[in-house]
Task: structure prediction
Amino acid sequence: MITSETLVNKEFITQGVMNWNSYRTDADSMKTIFKLGGKFSFQISNEMKEGSSHIHAYACVSADKGSFYFILVPSKEDSPSNYHNLPATSANYIYAEVGAGTLPDHISGLISRNTAVDRTKRWSKLTDREDWIDANTTNAGNTGITEKGVFQAFVIPVSDLSVDIEHNCFLALKEDQSELTGTYAADLIIDNAQGGLHCYDMVCSIPPFGQHAYTVEHKFGILHAIGIN
Result:
């Protein structure tokens, strides 16, 4: 049983990321995993924020598909060498379990409350979410739009985050103009638990890589260290 007290070490992270990578192209597996919930929470420290432009939130899952969680790493720490030399514990690698949750009423930002609610409702609506899964996987009786599968990680600007404040993250589906991932693309709506909802539309998911200078493949050191990309 994975809990918030689970030791976040290299072996634990590697296994979770590898499990996710093996399941994320399989429609039935992803439909099972995503039923576990769509919300996770975390805090960042000054040490994590200083010197990093982004937080990399890697999706992970237990081998039995019973625990869905994210490992969050500041971009300055996310290199193969840092990962290979990761100590037994590190305050810069955060574990965040995914569970049930709904978007609060207090919302402000550069996208409207209606837009934020619409995106989270698409994720919560089983038919929309499973249509998106089917469009991004290569089984489920269709050819799939991409061979990459669903997201591997989210990239979160640290400018959207406050130090030592709990942030609640809600999985969402936004309209996708690229037509690379079906009708919708995976998204995160981030809520500052003290009352300020960050709806800045700056979070992006990978793959695809290279949409921006900060999403090129070599920026994701854990994936390189494990041998995924």
